[in-house]
Amino acid sequence: MTLSYREAGVDLAVAERIAGRLAARLGTGLFGGFLPVPELREYDEPVLISSIDGVGTKVRLAALLDRPGGLGEDLVHHCVNDIAVHGARPLLFLDYLAFHRLEAPRVERIVASIADACSVLGIALAGGETAEMPLVYGEGSFDMAGAIVGVAERSAIVDGSAIRAGDVLLGLESSGLHTNGYSLVQRVFSEADYRRYEPALGRTLGEALLEPHRCYLQDIGTLLATDAVHGLAHITGGGIDGNLERIVPTGLQATVSLPPPPPLFALLESAGIDSGEMRRVFNMGIGLVAVCDRSIQSLATERLPGGCHVLGEITQNDESARRVMIRDDH
Amino acid sequence: MTLSYREAGVDLAVAERIAGRLAARLGTGLFGGFLPVPELREYDEPVLISSIDGVGTKVRLAALLDRPGGLGEDLVHHCVNDIAVHGARPLLFLDYLAFHRLEAPRVERIVASIADACSVLGIALAGGETAEMPLVYGEGSFDMAGAIVGVAERSAIVDGSAIRAGDVLLGLESSGLHTNGYSLVQRVFSEADYRRYEPALGRTLGEALLEPHRCYLQDIGTLLATDAVHGLAHITGGGIDGNLERIVPTGLQATVSLPPPPPLFALLESAGIDSGEMRRVFNMGIGLVAVCDRSIQSLATERLPGGCHVLGEITQNDESARRVMIRDDH
Fold this sequence. Notes:
Two copies of one chain form a homodimer.
Chain A: H1 12-26, E1 33-36, E2 46-54, H2 58-64, H3 71-84, E3 89-99, H4 104-121, E4 124-132, E5 142-153, E6 168-173, H5 182-188, H6 191-195, E7 197-198, E8 203-204, H7 205-209, H8 217-224, E9 229-234, H9 239-244, E10 252-257, H10 263-270, H11 275-281, E11 286-292, H12 297-303, E12 308-316, E13 324-327
Parallel strand pairs in A: 3-4, 10-13
Antiparallel strand pairs in A: 2-5, 3-5, 6-11, 6-12, 7-8, 9-11, 10-12
Helix pairs in contact in A: 1-4, 3-4
């Protein structure tokens, strides 16, 4: 008996064809990707700010509905937001994709969506790995991870330490669930549910759920240009509460009053998801919270085109008290 | 009906406990990891060199035998080698881990092994994501990806373009299969095979297969200090042929004569894996090939403690000819 790699479940020819196309697209054929960064010499105290993440089980919903074309934006934007909230300028992105089988059209759609999302933002796609692992991923399954590296001047890093009593909390709208809470959603709904047109959403539930993660890079740039931003929180797993808590210093409290959540969230709640759990898992319509000096409140709400809400304020507080308080107005 | 996140298959409490322990270990709690890099100001033309990769289906073998403790070295060393072959000094590493279930002891062993491997090499573990995705990963399954970023002076980048006729090919021994060919291996052997003591290996087959990927960072440093290195190839998927081809310039040919492969490879071949396929998939006992000026041949074979073989040489060749020729001596 002799076994070839193909017989073992890994199709090298398909792997090489995809790798070849990607190499042509990405301009790399060596072991690592090269990015000249002459601009780093202009920083007094350069700090590399990096992050790695996936898009959770949104991959499974996209596979089920055969709509993987938004996953590139999901992955890239999630990562970009995670370092942009610290004031970093993104430099390079790397992606890891692993599939049960490398099916060329699907792999190419995903890679193209990653490359496009990087290109739009001017970020170098410095490398990627595309793996076929039938022993790890079940029939039709795949996963993706992305890593991002950016740079900031040390003195310009935003980490919440400048937050003070009297600051205002501004909330920028999300485009949907972004990339969190999809395991919970998929426990509740069936494929028929995803494919049904929902009048309240103006599209199918599946389409609303697969809306890509919004990118806040430009909005953050607008905010940072005011020199009045004291902290930025990307609202991912853990919800507004869990993520805002990461940046509010001890001794201060953020009191948050959320605007009525968009129809998608009401639909999820009406399907039986517990409202408390929803707030711990979903962004509830707010994907980014900026803690700013009160002076820029009107300027920010005017200049940020994607929807900006005044959510509350920062007050002095007992050190042992909760740092974030969500008011239950709805 | 109401559903909590736990009921949907994601145990937030376990997730938070692991995240908390990791945060304490890694010193991060924000959205991105910070790494001050004042040394970048000392480069005339700094180039960031980066790579992302997984360890293939070695994860499944480690899961099957409940021995995940070497996977950290596998992941970190694979990535380190991929940028070290270009002359990069590694700066930071990021890891992505995704599991069917977050079982604390296993997750912690893997994360500890990643952190330890980074620590030994002086690389900052700048961030990590640990995801529980029962909808994507089958019972007991998990996957891992790692991203690495390093820096090199532009003029000191090693990419094979300096390779010339008369250069000698030096091969550094591998520690086993490293992280390639595990799908093929697992098609041939059963759990009983892995657990059986193999006299020729001095241990079980499973132990030999799970031997971590060797790190060549120090050896590469020794070689680069001679100023006689013209190209370095990390032997991963594609074998010696496929990886050496990446760095040998058109118009030259590398003629390679391999030393007898270590017993592990003979055992794999005797189990029925085709020998031609083995050479395209496995490293055949050589994990790194250095193409160097002939003057350092004796110095290199003396100074590199882990086993260094003279594999062959570079000759002038017709531009249309194959750039790598493996002599079939065994």
